[in-house]
Specification:
Blueprint lengths: L2 E3 L2 H6 L8 E7 L7 E7 L1 E7 L10 E8 L4 E9 L9 E7 L2 E2 L1 E3 L1 E3 L14 E2 L3 E2 L4 E8 L10 E8 L1
Antiparallel strand pairs: 1-3, 2-3, 4-14, 5-13, 6-12, 6-14, 7-8, 7-10, 7-13, 9-11
């Protein structure tokens, strides 16, 4: 939930870090002295989903994990990591909201890598507004050819909407 504060000193004294948290100025036209600026902040949230177990090689397929969004979220980034790196080819992960992909370029982990943050092809989001209670699924479109990969975690990063 957003908190409204009426000055920058109120923001910093409240423990909000305006450099680390999303701070949005809003105008209050109902103030008796005309408009006054309020600050509304949203703390960044991280949602981690275990998309496989830690010791079994992953396989391609749809809806490997199905979950519901615990709240509406303005998505700013998505990342993935594994505990066993794929070899022979890249892992390609698709995330769907109510059956529709949230990507224009899917999430990937390069061969011999353990994280998507270093992928040669970075994910591009096409849907950044995830609805409260939306059904989300995680698909593995491609896995490593020699070693598939194990222990997949997917991270949704953003702000409560």
């Amino acid at each position: 939930m957003a908190t409204e504060l009426n000055s920058l000193s109120a923001i910093t004294s409240s423990g909000i870090d305006p450099t680390a948290d999303y701070v949005e100025p809003i105008w209050d036209a109902s103030a008796s002295a005309g408009k006054r600026m309020l600050m509304r902040y949203f703390r960044e949230v991280y949602l981690c989903i275990a998309a496989s177990d830690e010791s079994t090689a992953i396989t391609t397929g749809t809806a490997k994990v199905t979950f519901r969004m615990p709240y509406a979220m303005a998505l700013t980034a998505v990342r993935a990591n594994v505990n066993t790196a794929p070899t022979g080819s890249t892992i390609i992960i698709n995330i769907k909201e109510s059956g529709t992909t949230i990507f224009s370029t899917k999430l990937s982990i390069d061969a011999s890598a353990k994280t998507s943050t270093t992928a040669s092809s970075q994910a591009v989001l096409s849907d950044t507004a995830l609805a409260d209670d939306a059904e989300m699924t995680i698909d593995f479109d491609q896995v490593g050819a020699s070693v598939a990969g194990k222990g997949v975690k997917v991270w949704l990063i953003g702000y409560r909407a």
